[in-house]
Amino acid sequence: MDIVLCVTGSVAATESIKLAREFKRQGHNVKCFMTQEATKIIHPNAMEFASREGVVLDLTGDIEHVKYAQADLILVAPATANTISKFACKIADNAVSTLLITAFGHNTPIVFVPSMHDSMYDAVYPNILKLKSEGIKFVNPRMDEGKAKFPSVEDIVLESLRTINLDKFNKGEDSNNIAGKKVLISLGGTYEAIDPIRGITNRSSGKMGLELAKQAYIRGADLSLLMAHVTVNIPKVFNVIYTESTELMNNTTMKLVPDFDIFIATAAVSDFAPIKEENFKISSDFDLTLDFKPLNKIIKHIKEVNPNIFLVGFKAEYNVSEEKMIECAHNQIDFAGTDLVVANDVGREGCEFGSDNNEVILVNDNILKFAFSSKKELSILIFNEINRLI
């Protein structure tokens, strides 16, 4: 994808170097425009190094504002109060503001990342609302220490790629069956309390669920996460519902699934819970024996509540044959009516809970085997198959 990154005169311009590098790392083309005020904070050579392209500082006979106005995305990061207000009034007095007006006339998607003092942010908020009404996207700043600070690079990248994909979908340029769909993803490991301090859980990290969530969001889904205990950082742009125990996840799932088109159940849900939860800390001076009760299988009831939902189940086995793993996946299809099962063996080296990689088999009427890959790569392949099936 072709992204034009406009850097304006906020101290957060120092973060734009990392942002450009991340887009390049993910395989996108980046062309940088800078205002003169931005060059007082970082040197244009830094952005040229990050983007591997010459930086546009002034407009020349090469009419750069026209040449780059129809990129896949115009991203203003950071966006100052000055730049936001000029664009709200459609003032063109430098390379960045002239590019923005030209791109707006071409209906090119534009994303702003405000970064300024909080009083300035409040003062220009009416201009932000005006631009939003015109279809301009904004990544919410991180409000901290009296400032509207630059959000995480990951949040900006996610919002940028989502904006590009939704624009292509709306223009009929992409066969994206995920855009606009309501997608619910459960992730992490549930926790069953023994007393106010102790409990039982599992080693699920939430990494696979998070990568699938990123793919759903990038592809334009209306995404919600049901999150148990995880060891990963969740992007601020996601809608997250916290569900610590199996019972809470079960109850919340049953309330939500009637309104969703796709449910991807990656959470490692406890099969058992203590029969009795004490309301005091159990003394460590004595031997402890616990009695457990089996818990309801959440996935079994999804189709009962919403027969039309596309249901993706995960089946983790430990040190089993490939044939046995596929058999277990088919059993889940028969048991729960899942439309697609992602089966994997967490006993394989490098595929354990918490690993960054995995090796999976997709099971429905067909069998698709995906070799050892990063969970990010696998999430893309899994969503490609979901996109095909729905």
Structural summary, described in words:
The chain is of the alpha/beta class and 390 residues long. The chain folds into two domains: 2-170, Rossmann fold; 182-389, CoaB-like (Rossmann fold, 3-Layer(aba) Sandwich). It is built from 13 helices and 20 strands. The chain has helices at residues 13-25, 36-39, 44-51, 64-67, 81-88, 95-105, 118-133, 153-170, 207-218, 246-256, 302-305, 322-336, 375-389, and strands at residues 2-7, 29-34, 73-79, 110-114, 116-117, 137-138, 142-144, 147-149, 182-187, 192-193, 199-200, 222-227, 239-242, 262-265, 272-274, 292-294, 310-317, 340-345, 357-363, 367-374. The strands form five sheets. It has an eight-stranded mixed β-sheet with strand order 13-12-9-14-17-18-19-20, with helices on both faces. A five-stranded parallel β-sheet has the order 2-1-3-4-6, with helices on both faces. Strand 10 (192-193) and strand 11 (199-200) form a beta hairpin. Helix 1 packs parallel to helix 3 (44-51), helix 5 packs parallel to helix 7 and helix 9 (207-218) packs across helix 13 (375-389). The radius of gyration is 24 Å and the shape is elongated. The two termini are 25 Å apart.
